[in-house]
């Protein structure tokens, strides 16, 4: 079962990836980074990406974009206080970032939000997670 | 190094994390509010009474059962290694949880109000090496976390005082699911550290929630017990003689000084009298 570094290397195989990071989205702590970093400031990049991921994970405005179901707005009630999103993958033009919640790194019921700021929107893939790093968490 | 050093430590020179890292030391750096474990100059783990340990994060957090943890505890060769080798955790899960616990405890052990007191050479942590981190990175992250909290709500007293609910006004930001779990345990007795432990979350994560909740007015901001500037790294009032009073309201009230209720009453009475 791969560790953080293996996940990062796998993320770097994504077509066009120039950098990858595992970031704790609650705090903005970079747990691992490879490749290029935007503006050569890893700390700021991690913090900003985490903020984006936090918004995606916690704000209803983002959750409402969830695919196919009216359920996305009711996350809080369904999951008894725990966020439905455990792993978040955010891709930007220059880096691919995998954000992880460290309190519950992975559960069988976890789902992922995958987003691209390039305009492809945000979608979720319940259960299976995102192809880039699903293998890392399970 | 800009970490606060204890003045007047009993040993002539208090050991510093940077110094120990430079000499590639192995052992336990004992601080006022926790312990930082080094191996060949790199930080391999940290513990603090304030921060829930990795066992709490894994069991209370719901990833491992208590039985599963007990079976792993005390294994020779490192508990962490056993958890992975026996298939209970993946490498990435262990690393993420370990780093979360490490930086969480380091924030309290190395942060404001806690300084190094001694070094126990050769001491190793029972978890075993998982993912060592450079001492510089740990210190930098500790400072960043202090600034992050100050930026969210520059009243550090909410970190340690019992969490008291208050009714926010209508403009307060909505509460997120994670914050709702924190609020559910806020009974006016539990401190943020205790709430974190009961939720199985890192203490610093809970401090972030508490500061956001206090800023939004969902949680009361108590008045500081000591006459001190509001936050260690917060730019406001660093040079002011007195700290801004803790607001009892939401963010809108921050800029105002302490409202003198008696004065306001007298003013109201006087205004009414002239009408």
Q: Classify the helix fraction of chain B into a percent range.
A: 40-55%
Could you state the oligomeric state of the chains shown?
heterodimer
Strands of the widest sheet of chain B, in order across it, are 3-2-1-4
- Number of beta strands of chain A: 6
Mean residue pLDDT of chain B: 83
The averaged pLDDT of chain A comes out at 59
Estimate the global geometry of chain B from the Cα principal axes: elongated
Runs of chain B in which pLDDT lies below 50 for 5 or more consecutive residues are: 1-11, 232-243, 251-255
Region (Disordered) (chain B): 218-254
Keywords:
heterodimer, A: alpha/beta, six-stranded mixed β-sheet, B: 275 residues, 2 domains, four-stranded antiparallel β-sheet, 41% helix
Written overview of the protein:
Chain B: Residues 218-254 are annotated as: Disordered. The complex is a heterodimer of chains A (138) and B (275). By secondary structure, chain A is α/β, with parallel strands linked by helices. Chain A has one domain (4-137). Helix content of chain A is 27%, strand content 25%. Chain A contains five helices and six strands. A six-stranded mixed β-sheet of chain A has the order 2-1-4-3-5-6, sandwiched between helices. In chain A, strand 1 and strand 2 (29-35) form a beta hairpin. Chain A is globular. Chain B contains eleven helices and four strands, in the order H-E-E-E-H-H-H-H-E-H-H-H-H-H-H. Chain B has a four-stranded antiparallel β-sheet. In chain B, a hairpin with a 2-residue loop joins strand 1 and strand 2. In chain B, helix 5 crosses helix 6 (135-152), helix 6 (135-152) runs parallel beside helix 10 and helix 9 crosses helix 10 (203-216). Classes of the chains: A alpha/beta (138), B alpha+beta (275). The interface between A and B is medium-sized, with 34 and 36 residues.
